[in-house]
Design goal:
Layout lengths: L20 E8 L6 E6 L5 E9 L7 E8 L5 E4 L12 E3 L6 E9 L3 E7 L6 E8 L1
Length: 133
Amino acid sequence: MAGEETRQTVDIIGDNAVTVTASTFSFDETSALEQTMVTVALTKRTKVRGIWIDMANVTQDTAVKVYHAIDGTNYREITVQANGGGVGTPLAWVTTDPDGVLLAGFVAYGSIRVTLTCGGGGAGSVNVPYVVV
């Protein structure tokens, strides 16, 4: 049709999806210090489709935070939507919440880090399975 604009949609990320990273983190519930659960090294703009954390073994209320590398050594906390709602990080997970935490997808421009922090009143370490996709 005359006057109709033609636009091309370009996927700016292409196929740069994060490599699936799955493991189990030994979370020390006796410590009140922030503990790095996983760091995913990224060298280019990458789509992180989501981060799943299984909190079934956790016995203490826990803060979940996501950080983004701003240069070779420094990270800054970022806001990521959790469990499909309007809650961003730090996510204040409590023991009465569902056992699974799903952090929504986002685009990362450098490495990312996910941390857990509790009050330190636990009896020892617990296994926390996770998947970054």
